[in-house]
Amino acid sequence: MNLPNQITTARVLMIPVFMVLMLIPFSAGQFEISGTALPYTHFAGAVLFIIAAATDWLDGYFARKYNLVSTFGKFLDPLADKLLVTAALLSLIELQIVPAWMGIVILSREFAVTGMRLVAASDGMVIAASGLAKWKTVFQMLALAVLLLHNVPFAAWNIPTGMIFMWAAVVLTIVSGVDYFVKNRHVFKGSM
User: Fold this and answer.
1) How far is CA 140 from CA 46, 48, 88, in A?
2) In total, how many domains does the chain have?
3) Is pLDDT of 179 > 90?
4) Positive or negative CA dihedral for 5, 176, 108, 24?
5) Parent domain of 109
6) Could you tell me which residues come within 8 angstroms of residue 147 by beta carbon, excluding any fewer than 6 positions away?
7) Residue 80 in domain
8) How far is residue 61's CA from residue 67's CA, in Å, rounded to a whole number?
9) How many whole angstroms separate alpha carbon 45 and alpha carbon 36?
């Protein structure tokens, strides 16, 4: 297994640990910043999420730089990304930090675009990530990281930055999803 695939596999293996830290009610204490309480376990889970999200860039960097792109990596990398985002969203919904409808919008778009890519792949076509999709990912990861930290990085200013990022992620999720389907509607022609 090459280095990028090892990094991606490590990202997948971080997900259950992340879920345990976020959802199992350990009584490890908490710290408070500007009136916002952050359990130590949630802090550890957020740091693990940030590390896992950063490995997405890292494995891609090594795969491109050293020409280590593999079929396994092409399969596992997007799967790892979706599993990580799903785990974070479900944790935040369970903790009643993010409304369930936001998670449904984001996950529905991910499943729909993945399905479209599978249909395209069966016909030998590749659908690359659009610029809008890349911005969607940036805002999703920012929103999830800040919300997993209970908005503590911005608590002193009393601005709901995590939810602002989440709203931006939801809007970009919808816009990029529509963009994918409009630009790639040819994928479904002849199959309907």
Assistant:
1) 14, 16, 10
2) 1
3) yes
4) positive
5) 3-187
6) 92, 97, 98, 162, 163, 165, 166
7) yes
8) 10
9) 17
CA dist., res. 95 & res. 85, Å (int)? 15
CB of 150 closer than 8 Å to CB of 37: yes
pLDDT, tens digit, 9 for 90 and up, residues 54-95:
998 898 889 888 998 887 887 888 889 999 999 999 999 999
Give domain status of residue 9, yes or no. Answer: yes
Q: State the DSSP code for 97.
A: S
CA angle 72, 89, 183 (to 5 degrees): 60
Angle between helices 161-183 and 100-122 (to 10 degrees): 30
Q: Which residues pair with 38 in a beta bridge?
A: 31
Tokens representing residue 115 in the block:
């399905």
Domain with 21 in it: what CATH number? 1.20.120.1760
Look at the chain and count its residues.
Answer: 192
Task: Kindly give, in sequence order, each residue whose CB lies less than 8 Å from that of residue 65, ignoring residues fewer than 6 positions away.
Answer: none
Task: Please state the separation of Cα 49 from the chain's center in Å.
Answer: 9
Q: Residue 65, class by beta-carbon neighbours within 10 Å (0-12 exposed, 13-18 middle, 19+ buried)?
A: exposed
Q: With respect to residue 192, please indicate whether it lies within any of the assigned structural domains.
A: no
pLDDT at 145: 96
Q: What local confidence, expressed as pLDDT, does residue 60 receive?
A: 85
| 190: confidence class by pLDDT, cuts 50, 70, 90 | low
Q: Which two tokens stand for residue 118?
A: 């599978």
Strand partners, 89: none
